[in-house]
Design brief:
Length: about 170
Amino acid sequence: MQFLESLQNGWIDLNRGILHRKGKAEPDTNKRAPSVPIGDRLMAHMRRWYRCKSRYPVEYGGLPVRGVFDSFEAACQLAGLNYDGQEITIRVTAHSLRHTCATWMLLEGKSPYQVGRYIGMSAAMVERTYGHVTDEALRATANVLGRRNETSPVPQSSHTLAQTSMNKRRRT
């Protein structure tokens, strides 16, 4: 990944704020790698790094940092996120961040189409893989509808009218 347009590798378009996940000459495969917009805050940092003569978004001594995935795994190990048990092994990988992103986007109310476009997956695949997330969010919404809002109680007059109406129904 670099700040200059590339044929073989992903690159960052600093003018448009777009991260291209593959080079212009790389062939399309079943594993889509869509170009995605970069948030304004991160783009400001990237533009500053480029002005400071950086060629790569992650570099040391003017060379791209290699072994990012190994470093990610080491950081997860130090943070105690990975677990090797007798019956279960948990591994947090960089790919786990993709699942986290999709889950958070759905919980924020983004459509499966929007999520799919951003992470490079069809809307149908988002539904199949993460449908349980939207089901949970819908249930939470349904439960909220059944609760009385404690911060703004029902006005007394409305409550009295409803109570009177219910009492009339019981008598008939």
